[in-house]
Amino acid sequence: MAGHHDIDLLRLIDTESVEWGADVSVPFLLERTYIEAYSLGFRNFMEIPIEPKKQMALELATESGEKLGTVQTILHRMWESQEISHSPGTHKVVIGTSLHNEFQDRKQTMGVEAYVVVKRAYYYGPMPIHFQGFLNVKSGGMITREFHTGMISPFEIETGQVAGWKQISDPSKLSPPPVVSMCYSDTYSGDSKWTEGLDSVWPKQESKQGS
Prior knowledge:
Layout: E1 10-14, E2 24-43, E3 59-61, E4 67-70, H1 71-80, E5 89-103, E6 106-136, E7 142-143, E8 147-149, H2 154-158, E9 166-168, E10 180-188, H3 192-195, E11 205-209
Parallel strand pairs: 2-10
Antiparallel strand pairs: 1-6, 2-6, 3-4, 5-6, 6-7, 6-8, 6-9, 10-11
């Protein structure tokens, strides 16, 4: 009858109240940007500067002697400062054209570059929200001055530990569309395995939230 007469039906909701409480969630989209893979290139060196498994641990310095850290440290720093593009694709990154290196008592100057593969992943699921206000029974919309989401743990969502969430390939095809979206980029912590340069894939990721 309300629908026939174009009358809205509003239900009082207070998610923190015992009497008026309700479990309310909205469709939520997480957009994750991360490094999937990389390759390194060396130029103008006298001889191969370092064995392949140790390349990420290669210590570099400027012509003036300023220590820049390992290749891994430099790439991490460039990713955090967005000197490496965060858009999907393969990006060429020039670490330096005339860098100094000393390995096994051999000193030489070289150019170092990297090709970094950046990917995006999308996760879609229900996000609990907390608010005081009215729920439009007909449309499902909320009338409130403010609301707060539940706790968001990207790592648990990425690893399938949160019920109702799934990874999707194309967010434009979602139905219903997300009410809230959040974008974030991975940050890469130091790892002893990587400090020693003993692997050929990118280090373990830790999620870093952004807005």
